[in-house]
Amino acid sequence: MSETPPASQGSATRWVSPFCLLLCDTLSVRADAATGGLELVEGQCEAARRALTRFKAAPSAATPQVHGVSSSLDEALGAAARILAASRQPLIGGLGTDVAGARAVHRLARETGAICDPAGGAALMHTLRTLQDRGGYGTTLAEVRNRADLIVCLGGMPSGDAAELLARCGVGEAGTQQRHLVLLGGAPADQASLAALAGRAGLSTEAVALQGDLFGTVAILSALVAGRPVTRAAPELAKLAERLLAARYGVLVGQSALLPAHGNLVVEMTHRIVATLNQRTRAAALWLGGGNGAGTVNEVFTWLGGLPVRTRLGAVGSEHDPLCFEANRLLADAAVDCLVWISSFDPDCAPPATPLPLIVLGHPELASSAMRQGSVFVPVSTPGIGSAGHLFRADGGAVLPLVPLHDDKLPTLPEVLGGLVQRVQGLRAKASP
Amino acid sequence: MSTMRIAGGLVIDPTQPADTVRDLCVQDGRIVSLAAQAPADVEIDATGCVVMAGGIDLHTHIGGGKVNLARMLLPESRRIEPDCLGCVPGTVDTGHRYAQMGYTAAFEPAMVASNARHAHMEMGDTPILDHGAYVMLGNDEFFLQLLSEGGAAGSNFELIRDYMGWTINAARAMGVKVVNPAGISAFKFNQRKLDVDERHVHWQVTPRQVVHTLARALKELGVPHPLHIHGSNLGVAGNIESTLETIRSLEGLPAHLTHVQFHAYGTEGPKKFSSAALALAEAVNANPNISIDVGQIIFGQTVTASGDTMRQHAQAAFGSPRKFVGSDIECEAGCGVVPFRYREQSYVNALQWVIGLELFLLVRDPWRVVLTTDHPNGGPFTSYPHLIRLLMDRSFREEQLAKLHPEVAANCALRSITRELSLSEIAVMTRAAPARLLGLADRGHLGVGGAADIAIYREQADREAMFQAPEYVFKDGTMVARAGIIVAAPVGGTHFVEPDFDRGVEKTLRAHLARHGSVDFDRVAIGRDELCSCCNGGRLLPAACFKA
Question: A133 burial class (0-12, 13-18, 19+ CB within 10 angstroms)?
Answer without folding.
Answer: middle
